[in-house]
Design a protein that fits this description.
The complex is a heterodimer of chains A (400) and B (185).
Chain A lengths: L15 H4 L6 H6 L3 E6 L8 E5 L2 E7 L5 E4 L14 E2 L3 E3 L6 E3 L4 E3 L17 E2 L1 E4 L2 E5 L11 E2 L10 E5 L10 E2 L3 H5 L8 H8 L13 E6 L3 E9 L5 E9 L3 E3 L8 E2 L2 E9 L2 E10 L4 H5 L2 E2 L2 E2 L5 H6 L3 H6 L17 H18 L15 E2 L4 E5 L7 H5 L2
Parallel strand pairs in A: 12-24
Antiparallel strand pairs in A: 1-11, 2-3, 3-4, 4-9, 5-6, 6-7, 7-8, 10-11, 13-21, 14-21, 15-16, 16-17, 17-18, 17-25, 18-20, 19-25, 20-21, 22-23
Chain B lengths: L1 E2 L2 H5 L16 E4 L15 E7 L4 E8 L2 H9 L3 E5 L5 H6 L12 E2 L6 H8 L4 E5 L10 E2 L3 E5 L11 H22 L1
Parallel strand pairs in B: 1-8, 2-5, 2-7, 5-6, 7-9
Antiparallel strand pairs in B: 3-4
């Protein structure tokens, strides 16, 4: 008799407590305790743009005096969308009856009302605080009394004279389109899965990165005060070792050095920002002298960029997008068969569960700081060649 | 307490069949993180151990010094099965620091939502599930009548387990199950 057939198969469920991002969901509330990049600075203009972040619809604009604003789009008067509003010196005017709101939702004017609105100071358009840093608009969407300071990152500080910050919202590291159409966690936890690299990115895709990355590494995992880190050792066969350090920093930062093996501390980091439960974007900031550094980093499949692949080539040369998207719009995590190579995944999920528990109990998740003097986050990820006379050593590169 | 959801009893999930229990003793299902490994600040003496999973990866973990002895006590009364995110690495990685037998104990490769797996594995046998509170993503451990669910103090891990109390409750469970089986026969 045949055994193990698919007859009667009943599929499992996602770990919604970790995957979902909407208001009131367990990890959605964790995410709301941190600042998130939501757009590039240049995207905030006098033409309003619609954004969807953490399952919430928002409208982003910049007043004619230069202040960025992020408001709930449904006008509190009668519900017309501020997407169709007109931006003025101090705020945005609703197209329907002309109510004007500033970047903090204060109603400045109700033109059809007596005296421009006798009670306009009693109403408030829901808004979120924003800041601008590293060429990005950052939003804090959590409880106001818990608003932390906006972190800075050492790898993006103290640029050399020939360096500049390069900002990209086109899905660097996602291996697919700019807007990725599946649950964000499938991408983020992939960062702690170094074992897929020699399989997916070498055996299947052809060597997408470098020959060294095709070697199966020996990995050590560790929890850090801010997340999870893996250190991947590869013997290169010429007396050198490659020590590649990859990190996730809560709640959604990916620290993945160039897979093309530029040496030293990584010069780029990226935030995996959920739009909703089944869509996300990746905001990446790099420092480099070449303004096209991030664009050039995009991997190719037998020399072709992802968006030019035919259906057959997508199937024959799958990459991160094909693997992660095919896990499902939201992966059925309870179906996962956790084994040796999944230790990093398990550690991320466990640390996520801890943050959910901490926030639910009224505490703070890891990494949030309310102290201006404690804003700087140290990044340790990178590629460190050891055993070669002129290669940078890990100890030198990350030594305090 | 969260009541067990009947739908979770019957959900057919893992496409994996663990080695079955011996069948003549209750089953003790053990988590690992914050059970035999202490991840946070320990409240009991611990030692650091460098564990390897066949050289694929390594981790340094803190294990309570008295954990091995506690496991030996429990193994006298139960068939022990690991249910954890450590998968098949559980027994081999911890064999030396926990002085485990050469023959690996069975394992269930699950991190959260373990109840359906445990029930399927135990079959009709009485079972006890000892784990860290974090595995209950809902925040509350399930309240079950067909088994015993115990949550340890994460700072003490398995050393916070009251073995005498557990053995008493297990005897009561065995007797109750035997009586129910007799009534249903």
């Amino acid at each position: 008799m045949d055994t193990g057939t698919a007859y009667g198969l009943r599929l499992g469920q996602p770990l919604n407590e970790l995957a979902q991002v909407g208001p009131g969901t367990p990890y959605g509330e964790v995410l709301r305790r941190y600042w998130h990049p939501v757009a590039k600075v240049e995207d905030a203009t006098t033409r309003p743009v619609s954004l969807r972040v953490l399952g919430e619809e928002l409208v982003l604009f910049r007043t004619r005096r230069g202040r960025a604003g992020l408001l709930h789009p449904r006008c509190i008067h009668r519900g017309a969308s501020l997407f169709y509003g007109g931006v003025e010196d101090e705020g945005i005017r609703c197209c329907y009856h002309g109510w004007v709101f500033d970047t903090e939702g204060h109603c400045l004017e109700q033109p059809c009302e007596p005296d421009l609105g006798l009670h306009r100071d009693r109403v408030r358009q829901p808004w979120y605080p924003v800041e601008e840093q590293y060429g990005l608009i950052w939003a804090y969407m959590g409880p106001p009394e818990k608003k932390p300071v906006l972190p800075r990152y050492d790898t993006l500080e103290d640029l050399a004279a020939d360096e500049q910050l390069i900002v990209n919202d086109q899905g660097v590291g996602g291996g697919g389109p700019a807007q990725l159409d599946f649950n964000w966690l499938q991408h983020w936890e992939n960062v702690m899965d170094p074992f897929h690299v020699p399989i997916l990115h070498a055996r299947f895709s052809g060597n997408q990165f470098t020959p060294e990355m095709a070697l199966i590494p020996e990995v050590s995992y560790e929890y850090t005060p801010l997340g999870v880190r893996s250190i991947q050792m590869r013997e290169l066969g010429d007396g050198r070792q490659l020590r590649r350090v990859t990190e996730v920093i809560f709640p959604n930062l990916r620290v993945v050095a160039s897979p093309k093996l530029a040496s030293g501390q990584t010069n780029m980091i990226g935030w995996v920002v959920p739009m909703d439960d089944t869509n996300f974007r990746i905001f990446t900031v790099a420092r480099d002298s070449d303004p096209d550094f991030l664009a050039k980093l995009r991997s190719t499949h037998e020399g072709k960029p992802w968006k030019e692949l035919t259906d057959l080539e997508h199937q024959r040369l799958p990459g991160d997008y094909e693997a992660q998207k095919s896990q499902g719009s939201i992966s059925l995590h309870s179906e996962d068969h956790l084994t040796t190579t999944d230790q990093g995944i398990a550690m991320i999920r466990r640390m996520m569960a801890k943050q959910h528990r901490a926030v639910a109990a009224g505490g703070d998740p890891v990494g949030v700081s309310f102290d201006e003097s404690d804003r700087l986050v140290r990044i340790e990820g990178g590629n460190y060649f050891e055993g070669a006379p002129d290669a940078p050593l890990l100890a030198d590169a990350v030594d305090d | 307490m969260r009541r067990c959801s009947p739908t979770r009893w019957t959900t057919d999930v893992a496409k994996y069949t663990a080695r079955p229990p011996r069948g003549d003793r209750p089953v003790l299902v053990l988590g690992i993180s914050d059970v035999v490994v202490i991840e946070g600040e320990p409240a009991v003496p611990v030692s650091m151990h460098h564990l390897s999973a066949w050289g694929r990866w390594v981790r340094d973990v803190a294990i309570p010094d008295a954990a091995a002895q506690r496991l030996h006590e429990l193994a006298e009364h139960f068939d022990i099965v690991w249910a954890s995110e450590w998968g098949h690495n559980a027994h081999t990685a911890f064999r030396e620091p926990l002085e485990l037998p050469e023959e690996p104990w069975p394992f269930l490769p699950v991190q959260f939502d373990k109840l359906a797996h445990i029930r399927r594995y135990a079959g009709g046998l009485p079972w006890v599930w000892v784990d860290d509170p974090l595995v209950d993503l809902s925040g509350e451990p399930p309240e079950c009548e067909d088994g015993i669910v115990v949550r340890v103090d994460p700072a003490e891990g398995i050393l916070s387990l009251d073995v005498d109390d557990l053995l008493t409750k297990t005897r009561e469970l065995v007797e109750r199950r035997a009586k129910e089986d007799g009534e249903n026969a």
